Amino acid sequence: MPSTPVRKAPRYCLHKATGSARVRIDGRTIWLGKHNSPESLQAYARLVAELSAGNDPSIGPVPEDLTILELVDRFLAWAKAHYRTPSGEPGHEVTNYVYALRPLLSLYGETPVRDFTPRCLKLVRADMIRRGWCRQSVNKQMFRVRNVFRMGVEEELVPVAVLQALLAVRPLRRGETAAADPAPVQPVDVATVDATLPWLPKQVRAMVQLQMLTGARGGEIRLLKRYDIDTSGEVWTARLVEHKNAHRGRPRTLLFGPQAQDILRPYLLRPADAYLFSPTEAVRDQRRQDRADSKRPPGQFYDKDAYARCITRACDLADRWAHGGAAVADSDRLVPRWHPHQLRHAAATMIRREFGLEAAAVMLGHASALITDAVYAERDEAKAKQIALKIG
Known about the structure:
The protein is mainly α. The protein has 3 domains: 9-60, no CATH class; 61-182, DNA polymerase, domain 1; 190-391, hpI Integrase, Chain A. It is built from 17 helices and 6 strands. The strands form 2 sheets. A 3-stranded antiparallel β-sheet has the order 1-2-3. α4 crosses α5 (118-130) and α15 packs antiparallel against α16. It is elongated and about 70 Å long.
């Protein structure tokens, strides 16, 4: 009778951010306690013994002293399966949770779940404020933190009383907190955009112009591929599979009128699965010194930070040229800095002024509570195409 193969013992590792000991088994993290403590070394010895006996130590009853670190680890494994894009990849919400949970782990990673109280949650919130997060962001991240415990209750990892107590912590209100309230996003002036355009790489210039003509979000333009564009009609369309509200089941279609078609046309001569706007192509075409010498090679598409950096750099170049090569204080700038999201606001303002509020909601892909989904899809796309023919 063949013998059972002996499984190699996992490495006993230090998690530097928290000072905890951990091991990895089949892609799963098991936390052992404080690194090099007698308790963690003993837990490691038990784990190795379990593996030698052919048991899986990552499966079994929930320990009574389950820590926040262990709960978060289980939550993130759940989130990667739950928050997925239509293509099956983990969605951006997983990254949002990783970011939101940093203050929780830094303060209470080794704390047993049963000992986490509303006072602890309020201290986590205070740490978020100390990090400079704005009030709206803090409230969103607090919701995500509580959602970890909500999943824990659902999976019978967390006592119900713990979650009920945490729900008593109210969101921050305007004027009652030291957390800042950022100024509302204002539309960028068209003259400012026009002054910036000559200083942008041609790929970024095309993205900016398309945002202005369509009212699209930056990510909707940045991630366009050749196969997204349907050129069969008088108005070209791109029916997006992955977008901000895809998980809510809402459709999103970008519409390209004559001006937008002229901008898109040179980028359609590429493989069907290729991104339309490529940083690699920009490096080759523009030979920008700072990108050419970068240790990090350019990606296949512009991420939101790279897109914003290109615009900021172009604003600075345009302003310096306007001042004859001299750098000036922000208060004396002739070309103020702006960011991609302001383009969507600018397009919305223009469409609303010329065609009305409902037309702006249609063109920008906002849901309407006044009409059914069926009427919304049929009547409003026809209206949006009329607008695209006029402005885009």
